[in-house]
Write a structure and sequence with these properties.
- The complex is a heterodimer of chains A (320) and B (328).
- With 320 residues, chain A is α/β, with parallel strands linked by helices.
- Chain A has helices at residues 47-54, 81-87, 99-102, 109-121, 125-138, 144-147, 157-169, 187-204, 215-221, 239-244, 249-256, 296-300, and strands at 5-16, 19-31, 36-40, 62-71, 74-75, 92-95, 175-179, 207-212, 224-229, 232-238, 306-309, 312-314.
- Chain A has a domain at 5-83 and 214-314: P-loop containing nucleotide triphosphate hydrolases (Rossmann fold), CATH 3.40.50.300.
- Chain A contains twelve helices and twelve strands.
- In chain A, strand 11 and strand 12 form a beta hairpin.
- The radius of gyration of chain A is 21 Å and the shape is globular.
- Chain B is α/β, with parallel strands linked by helices and 328 residues long.
- An eight-stranded mixed β-sheet of chain B has the order 6-7-8-3-9-10-12-11, sandwiched between helices. Chain B has a four-stranded antiparallel β-sheet with strand order 2-1-4-5.
- The two termini of chain B are 32 Å apart.
- The chains are: A alpha/beta (320), B alpha/beta (328).
- At the A-B interface, helix 7, helix 8, helix 9 and helix 11 of A face helix 6, helix 7 and helix 9 of B.
- The structure holds adenosine-5'-triphosphate (ATP), adenosine-5'-diphosphate, iron/sulfur cluster (2 copies) and magnesium ion (2 copies).
- One magnesium ion (MG) binds next to helix 1 of chain B.
Chain lengths: 320, 328
């Protein structure tokens, strides 16, 4: 059986005046039904553009230039825009970091949740409204019958994120992509939202791509984890394996730098510098400048992803 | 030891308008807090968004006048300081902000950004100031060659280094840092945390460190204060508060942090619902609508912030019953 989602060799670029920015540089990922895959990395490493590519919503002047994205075996990149619209929001849904930018300020939240139901499931206005109340209740909005009449600005950040999740789930999608869904929220609200996502994913056997830079969330919630750096996946494994046995120097450094693993009052481990400029070609390993164990060959060779243990892939020439 | 800075019963209220036709109401951002900050110590202040942390910071720097209550610096009341004393206060108490993008003037070169506070406080002559700026840049891990650049030519982490250098320019004794690493990337956060730690050790500064990230709080603080809805609900040493909290809110905050360590991953004590509006705070204990341990008395009587064990205070009617029973 084909995977729920299989991305191979995805390349997405922006043609800017200052040069070609290669935001996604050959990404391979798979998600199975009921599985949560975490996509982790620092800002600008290409997480959101990978997600946008799956939905074919890359903003211009961005363009997918290579690769394939198969959803249950069907190549999304080969579909007409009309077929793609049937999939978007219906079979593959998206939850964004900032609900304010994806909710429409001039419509009530009830109307917005119901809209998808009318378009994709052909429900009547009343049927859709009833279903919207039901969905908002499911995602933990108290007194949903009243709340459907509220406008987005009348809700707190946590409530808006619940509305976004209700909208994403409205049509019973098979895959949900959540791009930093709790980054703007407090830890107590974050815990509530993640608990909710977990429960819904398990109940409905949906696949979830969880994009985040919070490694604690990853450790607790994801079945598998892919670490992204400068447009590439540099390491991927089952989450428990990745945290117990990180192999790529970047993954190791990232984990070592967390205050949670430091001793209070002592120095944290750091690596120098910042992420490389993604404009133009990056020869060799993009982590070379910051890598504590890199050598000249790392700057010359193209580094391939290799399976070093069952299901554990690493993009580093020095890991055996 | 006498405290460097003391706040007593500090209150800050703002008039706000509800809806279009609603009458004016009072929002209580800070509802009467007491704080003491000792020389050389780092006090960490944490709590959910909107609980009043930044308002406390602005009150303490003198940027905003309190509605009532007093702030004393070395025993002198801020509200009664002469102009000269106030200028000295503004020099000795410096602020570092969360957003390294908007807190630096985009039209000023680094040399001017760092030179300006020196000029304002009349420190050194032109050549002396130039040397001082170079020294400051080295101090925060940048190069003196960066002097003639503009803020947009730096990364987020580098900009935060400039923000820290600006605070250090006038040799402060206390730095109030409001979420200084929250906007930074993971691998950059650790660099800035280390820099703050170095600065504190080398210069013997006091810090008020505001953050909502409890692992950062644990790493940097000597003492910790947890805020909820404009009040301090728990305070004590870092280890006391973070290892054995005596307030249900602190417990909920701690257990909501996703943990990397599978052994620490006990089931979350989830605080129900959300932070109530500071315009209409709940009766009695402000945490009672969300508290898993709430009893009838909790909605009637507000608990005082009282010492429960030496050095650790909590504002909860049932700290002893909930947290201290089995210890006995
Ligand atoms: N100038 C103002 N006018 C009216 N209300 C204000 C003003 N400044 C702050 N508030 C309100 O006071 C409360 C406390 O705000 P404050 O900015 O201190 O919170 P905070 O703890 O720093 O939150 P965050 O973690 O989001 O930075 C909030 O309800 C806020 O909306
Ligand atoms: N609309 C755009 N125009 C030009 N470059 C973009 C655009 N969106 C993203 N990029 C660039 O693509 C790269 C990856 O961005 P993104 O996927 O948003 O990162 P992440 O989500 O991991 O923080 C970055 O270098 C970013 O600057
Ligand atoms: S390939 Fe070389 S530079 Fe890249 S991570 Fe491995 S050792 Fe470091
Ligand atoms: S006083 Fe009551 S409601 Fe408040 S924290 Fe304690 S137990 Fe909970
Ligand atoms: Mg993003
Ligand atoms: Mg604040």
């Amino acid at each position: 059986m084909p995977a729920l989602l299989e991305i191979t060799g995805l390349r997405t670029e922006f043609r800017l005046k200052s040069g070609v920015l290669k935001a996604v540089r050959g990404v391979d990922l798979t998600v199975e039904p009921g599985e949560t895959l975490a996509l982790v990395g620092e800002s600008g490493c290409g997480k959101s553009i990978t997600a946008a590519s799956v939905l074919r919503l890359v903003p211009p002047p961005g363009r997918i230039v290579a690769g394939s994205i198969r959803f249950k075996g069907e190549d999304l990149l080969a579909l007409s825009e009309e077929r793609m619209r049937e999939i978007r929001g219906n079979r593959i849904a998206m939850v964004f970091q900032d609900p304010m930018t994806s909710l429409n300020p001039v419509f009530t939240v009830g109307f917005q949740v119901a809209e998808g139901l009318r378009i994709h499931r052909g429900l009547s206005a009343q049927g859709a409204e009833r279903e919207a109340v039901e969905l908002l209740t499911q995602v933990g909005i108290p007194a949903a019958t009243d709340r459907v009449k509220d406008y987005p600005h009348q809700l707190s950040g946590g409530m808006r994120q619940r509305v976004m999740i209700a909208m994403a789930l409205a049509c019973g999608p098979e895959l949900v992509i959540a791009d930093e869904p709790t980054t703007a929220l407090d830890v107590t609200i974050q815990a509530q939202i993640l608990e909710l996502l977990d429960r819904l994913m398990a109940e409905k056997q949906m696949g979830l791509i969880l994009i985040t830079h919070n490694l604690g969330i990853v450790a607790e919630r994801a079945h598998r984890t892919a670490i992204m750096y400068a447009g590439e996946i540099v390491e991927s494994a089952a989450t428990a394996e990745l945290f117990a046995n990180p192999l790529h120097p970047y993954t190791k450094g990232l984990l070592a730098s967390l205050p949670e693993f430091g001793t209070p009052g002592e120095k944290l481990a750091t690596f120098a510098g910042g992420v490389p400029d993604l404009r133009g070609d990056l020869a060799g390993c993009p982590f070379r400048e910051r890598c504590p164990i890199g050598d000249d060959a790392c700057s010359r060779e193209t580094i391939q992803m290799r399976e070093v243990a069952p299901g554990h892939l690493v993009r580093c020439r020095k890991v055996s | 030891m006498t405290p460097l800075l003391t706040a007593e019963n500090l209150v800050k209220q703002y008039p706000v308008r509800g809806g279009m036709f609603a009458e004016k109401r009072i929002l209580t951002a800070v509802a009467g807090i007491d704080l003491e900050l000792y020389p050389g110590e780092t006090l960490g202040l944490a709590g959910e968004s909107g609980c009043g942390k930044s308002t406390v910071a602005r009150l303490l720097t003198g940027l905003t006048p309190p509605t009532s209550g007093s702030i004393k610096y070395e025993g002198r009341e801020l509200a009664r300081m002469s102009k000269a004393e106030l200028a000295q206060y503004r020099k000795e108490v410096q602020m570092v902000f969360q957003d390294p993008f908007s807190s630096l003037n985009p039209r000023m070169r680094v040399a001017e950004i760092l030179g300006e506070p020196l000029e304002i406080h009349r420190i050194g002559d032109a050549a002396g100031r130039r040397d001082k700026v170079a020294e400051l840049l080295r101090r925060v891990g940048l190069s003196p060659e960066h002097m003639m650049r503009f803020p947009h030519e730096f990364s987020g982490g580098q900009r935060q280094r400039i923000g820290i250098a600006r605070a250090l320019a006038v040799s402060p004794r206390l730095i109030i840092a409001d979420e200084p690493v929250s906007a930074l990337d993971l691998s950059i956060q650790a660099q800035i945390i280390n820099l703050l730690q170095d600065v504190k050790k080398d210069l013997g500064l006091s810090f008020l460190f505001i953050t909502h990230d409890l692992s950062v709080l644990r790493h940097l603080s000597d003492r910790v204060a947890i805020m909820y809805l404009g009040r301090i609900v728990e305070t004590g040493s870092r280890d006391q508060v973070l290892n054995r909290p005596l307030h249900p809110y602190t417990e909920a905050l701690l257990s909501a942090i996703p943990s990397l360590d599978p052994k620490k991953r006990t089931r979350h004590v989830i605080a129900k619902g959300e932070l109530p509006s500071p315009v209409a705070p709940p009766s009695g204990c402000p945490f009672h609508p969300r508290c898993p341990y709430a009893q009838p008395v909790c909605s009637e009587k507000r608990p005082e912030l009282l010492e429960k064990v030496p050095g650790q205070r909590a504002a909860c009617h049932f700290s002893e019953e909930i947290f201290l029973k089995e210890a006995k």
